[in-house]
Amino acid sequence: xxxxxxxYAPSPRRVRMYAAEKGIALELVEVDIxxxxxxxxxxxxxxxxxxxxxxxxxxxxxxxxxxxxxxWLEERTPEPNLFGRDAAERAEVNRWIDRLMFRLYVPTTxxxxxxxxxxxTRLTQVPLWGELERAAVLAEYDALDRWLTGREYLAAGRxxxxxxxxxxxxxxxxxxxxxxDATRPALARWYEALKARPSARA
Length: 202
Description:
This protein is of the alpha+beta class.
């Protein structure tokens, strides 16, 4: 299987980290977002939305959206389980994924887009909005720190896709000056444990 990816973008990184945890081999095809390759005709023929990641399956069919790709891979390779082994676990993992995407990843993206120089010529930045979203991200850091006090992982008592989603979102905050530090000790401990996993370098 072939994964169209970008080394800096968070969405394809979710898939790479997930696949590394599962031991799933993917052929990686780097797509340079900054150079405009996602909007080039050749790539639009692969993904008409002009986004990464895209998974090209062995039969030539293609699947987009990082979480859909990971869920499809989970159906094919259920162990080690990362989405929940039964209905209760799946609900728990998925509620965390939903929360993290809307309350952590999306606001982090807005901070980047509205405060970072990379986007200055690419969209109309609203710096005040970016700073309001920064406050929302830090509030979510606080919530995660409280939840992780006395817990090793976010859900199901083991590493799941929820941890991968959170870790990638937090790492994506670095270019915008968003950092986890000792003021949130439980979150910092969890973050360092995730960072130490080989999959974090995928």
